[in-house]
Amino acid sequence: MKKVGKLLFRIILILMTILLLLVAGLYVTGNGYIIKAIRSTYLKGFTTANIDDHTYFQNREVKAGTPQFWPQHELFNRVQLTERLRKELEDYRSIGFAVFKDGQLLYEEYWDGYSAQSMTNSFSMAKTVTSMLIGKAIEQGFIKNLDQPITDFLPEFLGDSLGRLCTIGHLMSMRSGLDWTEDYHTPLNPTTESYYGDDVERMLLKRKFTARPGGLFRYCSADTQLLAIILKRAIGKNPADYLSEEFWQPLGMERDALWSLSGGLEKAFCCINSNVRDFAKIGQLLLQKGNWNGRQLLDSVFVERMMTPEETAFLPGQPREYAYSLWMDDIHQPAIYALLGHLGQRIIFIPAENLVIVRLGKSGDPRPLGLGHLDTDVYFYVDEVIKMLRDQ
Q1: Strand ranges in 44-151 using DSSP code E only, listed in sequence order
Q2: Is 135 helix (H, G, I), strand (E, B) or coil?
Q3: What is the DSSP annotation of 217-255?
Q4: How far is 6 from 3, CA to CA, in rounded Å?
Q5: Concatenated DSSP letters for 245-310?
Q6: What pLDDT shows up at residue 28?
Q7: Are 73 and 385 in contact (CB under 8 A)?
């Protein structure tokens, strides 16, 4: 028995030594972020980032001011979800769903203990908000226009022959040509490092451009994060404070939000943590071409630009799915515009129906059902909500 005990002790000691060497190796090679990624995903029972993970990061408050509560539609919660829509929402672990018609709250429902006060991660819906802040900075003269070279604010790329050709508009339309791998599930890739790493600005400013800017659309979270660095340098303040001053307070958001940080900089490609009703106001503002209660919070021309894709960003016959930080399907009837995030976070607005739909949840619908070029669930939400309205 003593020999067996000693053998087990030696095995455990060897395993611990190997583990410590692996951990040390990750930090020595600059991959220490993987430890944080594992701790906040796999050790918590997840396989990727989750909607409640802002508690693992430093955050900066986006302060709300005097709240403006959504007026309730006369048919509030008297309309019923279609059977097909309810199944879609519940099968893919939705935690909140709301419909806003003609600027009024028509339907609202929550699941799994979440409520109107719950705060969850926007994921990539934050990209659109960051671009809205860029638009405001242009309006206020901090940035000249979308054609301004990024090197005016990011001199770190002056030595990059391709980087010197990149403009702010190239970043916003995701045609930068930056060397990047977009991956949300494997540990050793730049997307994971930007999410869990300690200094996203330093990381990104070391990247290289490998294609000529202005080419085809290629989804790239790094493009939006570079916009955040530009924004902060242009306006001389934190993006979270700027968001509070220019949109969060004027929109009368009901609650403060949290914007997760990396190295003191807002993670603009992902992480605004808020709730269904306040996220909906972003969609409503875009639906109203930047106007809110008679005040033009964002230039209507800029909003139109956000909704208009560049023809040269797509091959002939390829769907024009992305404009300037907005997803779209202008072939679908009615045309769809959307802010889309990891795990199925959605702010959808339908100008033809004066309609905003918000869905938050723990997973998206991965099925390739051929309903359109956007994610499958987007079409379920739009088509079934319109059916709900038609049945009234």
Answers
A1: 59-62, 94-101, 104-110, 120-121
A2: helix
A3: ----HHHHHHHHHHHHHHHSS-HHHHHIIIIITTTT-SS
A4: 5
A5: IIIITTTT-SS-EEEEEETTEE-TTT-EEE-HHHHHHHHHHHHTTTEETTEESS-HHHHHHHT---
A6: 47
A7: no
Taking alpha carbons only, the member of 263, 327, 292, 291 closest to residue 131 is: 327
Which neighbouring-strand residues pair with 258?
61, 273
Report the candidate in 162, 176, 228, 181 with the shortest Cα–Cα distance to residue 201. 228
- Are 155 and 166 in contact, with CB atoms under 8 Å apart? no
Alpha-carbon distances, residue 14 vs 8, 28, 38, 173, 293 (angstroms) = 10, 21, 22, 51, 67
Q: Do 185 and 47 touch, CB atoms closer than 8 A?
A: yes
Q: CA 248, CA 256: separation in Å to the nearest integer? A: 8
Instruction: Kindly state the tokens that stand for 247.
Output: 């949109």
CA distances from 233 to 62, 158, 368 (A): 19, 16, 41
Given a cut of 70, the residues of the chain with pLDDT beneath it are: 1-47
By C-alpha distance, which of 381, 379, 349, 345 is closest to 360? 345
Instruction: Please write the tens of the pLDDT for every residue from 165-207.
Output: 999 999 999 999 999 999 877 777 889 899 999 999 999 999 9
